[in-house]
Amino acid sequence: MDTFLTMMRYDVRRMWDRRWLVAAIAWALALLFGAMLFFVRDRYEASARIYVDTQTVLKPLMAGLAFQPDIDQQVRMLARTLISRPNVERLYEDPKIGLQRPPPPRYDMAVERLKDAIKVTPSGGGNLFTISYRDSDSGRAQRLVEALVAVFVASSEDTKQRDSTEARRFIEEQIKDYEAKLVQAENRLKEFKLQNFGVTGVANQDHFTRLASLSDEVAKLKLELSSAQQSRDALKRELAAEDPQLPPESMPSNMAAAPSELEQRLQAQYRNLDDLLRRYTEDHPDVLSARRMIASMEKQIKDEQEGPAKGGRSRGSAATNPVYQRLRVSLAEAEANIASLRSQLAVQEGRLEQVRGLASRMPQVEADLSQLNRDYDIVRKNYEQLVSRREAASLGVKIDQSSHLADFRIVEPPRVAPKPVFPSRKILAVLAMFASLALAAAAVFGLGRLKPTVDSISQMHQLASRPVLGSVSLLRGTEQREQRRQDVFRFASVMGLFVVAHVVWVAMIAWYGV
After folding, report:
1. CB under 8 Å to 335, separation ≥6 — which residues?
2. Rounded to an integer, what distance in angstroms lies between the CA atom of residue 351 and that of residue 307?
3. How many helices and strands, by DSSP H and E, does the chain display?
């Protein structure tokens, strides 16, 4: 600690010995800084604050009905791309702002400097942005910020309209493309079904399911046919045991005039046939069964009417027993039912044999059909999605045209701060004064380190590393002390003048802008 204080006292004495050099360097640096500061101009900052409100009433109401882009993300992207080269070039081309267009060799560099000078910063956590610019001309700075605010608001509208137009055009092109693909898929599916007609079967059943279904139907028809044949045989036995004629005393007097029960049943079958023909064709199994039943009844009526003439029966007249007549009608219906079941069984057995014959071909056909159906379903699904999105995009465009999804609010209009931004010329002048003094002292301090002097026995001993035999002291007289006081007074006057000159300079800058 003592060594450090000793060195400090030594350095101070050396600087005091070279005090006039300090004053000369300080004045020289002050003049240099003053010349440099003469070309420096105060810079004023113009700023504006804009809030983008994206929470409109239509946004929750139209959720799920219309396509709504991420407005918050678009606004943030617009804020980042606001300071783009086209926008900056537009500022140079606007004569109202007053920016001087530099010559072509320096134009690119000037554009980049202007881009760096314009600041667009988010304020807070929402869509609040601050646009600021600094310039030596306060009016020009304000006009430039006003132009940037107008560009920011207008670019949002242009971007939304351009995006909507491009999206609609893209969706229309994709819909046309998928329409062509859908037609091609439908044609391929139609041609495949025509080529494999009768093989593809039911769309929702595979080969083995159809085979099992047909086998069950054949077994069911065989069981029904066996039951119908047993019922017919029972009717035949009952008919053989029943007497066709009633005793004469039990016959009603008006029996000959009334139509028999067989004739009534025949008329009912005719009405049933008319009803079936209105619903089915002539080749339908129910129609064929009804015709066979009618033919059987007509044959029975004809045999009953011709029986007495041929002598086939000893009774000499048609059957008058109603039980016998009902049994014959039931037998005819049973025969017709058996014929119908046999026809249906033959058809189903034929289809079963056909399916069994296609056993080797059906798996490949079904695989190809499944692939075609899958391709068609994918294309159709994409086409329907594109159509629905086109409608949503169209509705979104109408919403944009009727009301804005984002509201730009100018919280603080473009204005210029009344005071120049830090550091102003006044502050620079004060800093120049202290910098001149500091640099002058540092220069003298360095000179003392480079060319040291000795003014004590201890310093001589440290430098020479030899014993000191003696020293000679300087005794100042009255004249020398008076001269020293005058020298100190002159130095103080020079440095005081230095400070006063800087104070006057700062005042002139503050009052007159010199």
Report:
1. 232, 292, 293, 296
2. 45
3. 15, 4
Query: Is the Cβ–Cβ distance between 329 and 167 less than 8 Å?
Result: no
- The span from the CA of 200 to the CA of 367, in Å, is 10
Question: Quick one: 239 exposed, middle or buried, by C-beta within 10 A (0-12, 13-18, 19+)?
Answer: middle
Burial of 105 (0-12, 13-18, 19+ CB in 10 A): exposed
Output the six-digit token pair for 299. 């044959």
Measuring CA to CA, which residue among 417, 414, 416, 415 is closest to residue 150? 414
Least Cα distance to 175 among 394, 17, 356 occurs for: 394
User: Full-prediction pTM beyond 0.70?
Assistant: no
3-state class (DSSP) for residue 251 = coil
Token pair belonging to 483? 């001269």
Tell me which residue of 18, 11, 16, 5 sits closest to 449, measured CA to CA. 11
Q: How far is it, in rounded angstroms, from Cα 270 to Cα 262?
A: 12
Q: Which strands, in side-by-side order, build the sheet including 407-416?
A: 119-122, 128-135, 44-53, 407-416
pLDDT in tens, the chain (514 residues): 566 676 777 777 777 778 888 889 988 998 898 888 777 777 889 999 988 776 654 555 455 555 455 555 666 666 777 888 888 888 888 888 888 888 888 999 999 999 999 998 887 666 788 999 999 888 999 999 999 888 887 776 655 555 666 777 888 888 888 888 888 888 888 887 777 765 555 445 566 777 788 888 889 989 998 988 898 888 888 888 777 766 655 555 444 445 667 777 788 888 888 888 888 888 777 888 888 888 888 888 787 766 544 444 444 445 667 777 788 888 888 888 888 888 888 888 887 787 776 665 666 776 777 788 888 888 888 888 888 877 777 766 665 555 455 677 888 999 998 888 877 778 888 888 889 889 988 888 888 777 777 766 676 766 667 777 777 776 767 887 788 788 888 888 888 888 888 788 777 766 655 5
Q: Are 135 and 141 in contact (CB under 8 A)?
A: yes
Q: How many CB atoms lie within 10 A of CB 394?
A: 15
The per-residue DSSP string of 204-216 comes to: T--HHHHHHHHHH
Tell whether the torsion through CA atoms of 308, 314, 320 and 323 is positive or negative.
negative
